[in-house]
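Working notes for the structural subgroup meeting. M.R. asked for a predicted model of this chain before we commit to crystallization trials. I am recording the input and output together here so anyone reviewing the notebook later can reproduce the run.

Input as submitted:
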Amino acid sequence: MSQPSIASVRETLVATPDQPFDLSKRDSGDRSLFPDKKHARVSLKKDAAAINELQDKLYAMRDRALLVVLQGMDTSGKSGVIRNVFADTSPLGMQVEAFKAPSKTELAHDYLWRIHEAVPRKGRIGVFDRSHYEDVLVVKVRGFAPDERIEQRYDQINQFEKHLTENGVTILKFMLNVGYEEQGIRLKERITEEHKRWKFNPGDLEDRKLWPDFMGAYETAIQRCSTEHAPWYIVPADSRTRRNAMIARIVRGTLEEMDLSWPDPGLKMEDYDFS
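Returned structure, recorded in token form:
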């Protein structure tokens, strides 16, 4: 069975800019793009290898960068995406940033300060495990900032992302859409399975109690911040393998569209003595 086309994956997952968006209509268990998990594994393996080759050219050219933003509720699989989609990619050309609660120094600056500092330099793929969207998600749900300040941030984020895209940074934003029941299963796994126990955070259960509020915050953020220059993709995340395969398809396609090539430094063999 052939891979689904990159265009079909994008069309299925994208939150179309300037169109109404209803998160409840996005099935976290959707398997339409990859009905067979084995085919998803094969597709992922092919795309991971291609991403590595394309990233080598991006690194050699050093005139553009790719930023991959991963957002999702706890257990949605952000670290799993990084580990699998970029399994073959050289760490020399990668930057990964995991955003936690801001430090005192970060709180002394505007909320985008720490984000801009972490944007990948030219020639690299940068991955954000959580991102500036925390400031319209957790901050909104938990009431850490007044409503009027949150309201300002949607336009500020759009302007920030437009600035990046106009300066050589291509942005991919993925919301890993894990279902409420599946999250419950995965949280229990973090207690019962020894190799996952270190991941368990009792605070995750507090966020789980606020699930409807978080879903509402995600829906608003996606509606307001899915733009032509940086659209959101809503990825069904109940199946880890299919989730990774869908994201790999889009990352590969985006790198291919950057029309990357090996730079020619103008060197000629006859100009050098290899004896």
